[in-house]
Amino acid sequence: MASSSSAISATRFLQSPTNAKPRSPSYSLSNSSFMASRSELRCPSSLSLRSPRRASSFTSALKQKTSKSTATIVADSLLITKEEGLELYEDMVLGRSFEDMCAQMYYRGKMFGFVHLYNGQEAVSTGFIKLLKKEDYVCSTYRDHVHALSKGVSSRAVMSELFGKTTGCCRGQGGSMHMFSKEHNVLGGFAFIGEGIPVATGAAFTTKYRREVLKEEDCDHVTLAFFGDGTCNNGQFFECLNMAALWKLPIVFVVENNLWAIGMSHLRATSDPEIWKKGPAFGMPGIHVDGMDVLKVREVAKEAIARARRGEGPTLVECETYRFRGHSLADPDELRDPAEKAYYAARDPIVALKKYLIENSLATESELKAIEKKIDEVIEDAVEFADQSPLPPRSQLLENVFADPKGFGIGPDGRYRCEDPGFTEGTAQV
């Protein structure tokens, strides 16, 4: 995890496609057409997908970091302080440990439906969300537990939601794929592909409207829209990129490209697998970053969030990452090449950050072990709390469904009709 190379790597992908090199030259499995084949799938040099004018601020900001003397770069190579490093490590360990516990609870029958875990992708969530203010917005996908945790939703509230209990962040009615918290401005997890991107775009428009029309000058909120590579061929994605660029909305589109859409390889599903190129096509900066390196993600996230907060418009960031488990806990994960999985497992983002912290004297082994012990206790407490929490009453089914539940939801006596023992009589033949 060589931090001083992060800005150089990021800058390279803001240059012309004709000069860029394949992103992952180190990945060259002989029996796979995976990332090694990227060079064969690049656009012809005659096609210019970049927009140098729009991308200039992002490029110049990153180039400033790379124009220093070698001595200065070495001196400034530590991109984080000790406090920041410990915060990043704690958040990533929390996400990993929480998901590991979710797997245990799912197989014990404590959770129902589909549960999609985030293992391996922690650097993306932590690298972006820990830079936000409380007022900023996060919009997620069905792989949303860790996004909620990074934004500040308590482990108790997330675990209880997974258990379907009233103490969950959605009172047990959202479940694994629909984490929402008004308090933390988590706009929800969305099960349908691309469904959350228009919601995030609307949130960003709200910020712009409040600032420019309602004259709330201190309203500089930023929205992060997380989604996967499988979403990037959907109409909502392109429509929202266009609208965000047209109106210069304060939003960052974060593609968590884990290279597989359920069982569909990213390379088989798109004509040009380099998603970051789609940003300049709509007049916004597009950038690729190593999504397995939290420090590189954080450097790119800083500039993208700052651009949005300054009113300079949206950015498309493609984070190349990998999920260590199957698509969901019901997925036997038999389609991915074992060698491919081993390659990314060796690049575990938590292990890499731990090594960086120790080698640069930002933390000791005992300090990191203390954090891990603390997280273990937090997770155990969350499970115990969720297990002991009550299930929702039947009457809760009709809440937040009708603006005026009288007539259907509430009977003449003022009681919920679903509590009437004869409520469902006569409906079997319908």
Walk me through what this model shows.
The chain is of the alpha/beta class and 430 residues long. 40% of the residues lie in helices and 7% in strands. It contains 15 helices and 7 strands. It has helices at 6-12, 52-66, 70-75, 82-107, 122-129, 145-151, 155-163, 196-212, 235-246, 266-269, 278-281, 294-309, 338-345, 349-359, 365-388, and strands spanning 137-139, 223-228, 251-257, 260-261, 264-265, 286-290, 315-320. Strands 1-2-3-7-6 form a 5-stranded parallel beta sheet, sandwiched between helices.
Strand segment tally: 7
Rounded Rg? 23 Å
Q: Termini, distance in Å?
A: 62 Å
The major beta sheet can be summarized as:
5 strands, parallel
Structural class: alpha/beta
Q: What letter string, H or E per element, gives the SSE order? A: HHHHHEHHHEHEEEHHEHEHHH
The unreliable regions are: 1-75
Amount of helix:
40-55%
Number of helices: 15
Strand content: 5-15%
Give the overall shape. globular
Instruction: Output the strand order for the largest sheet.
Output: 1-2-3-7-6
Give me the oligomer status: single chain
Mean pLDDT: 83
Descriptive labels:
two-stranded antiparallel sheet, globular, 430 residues, alpha/beta
Task: Summarize the helices and strands and which ones pair or pack.
Layout lengths: L5 H7 L39 H15 L3 H6 L6 H26 L14 H8 L7 E3 L5 H7 L3 H9 L32 H17 L10 E6 L6 H12 L4 E7 L2 E2 L2 E2 H4 L8 H4 L4 E5 L3 H16 L5 E6 L17 H8 L3 H11 L5 H24 L42
Parallel strand pairs: 1-2, 2-3, 3-7, 6-7
Antiparallel strand pairs: 4-5
Helix pairs in contact: 1-2, 2-12, 4-5, 4-6, 4-14, 4-15, 5-6, 5-12, 7-15, 8-9
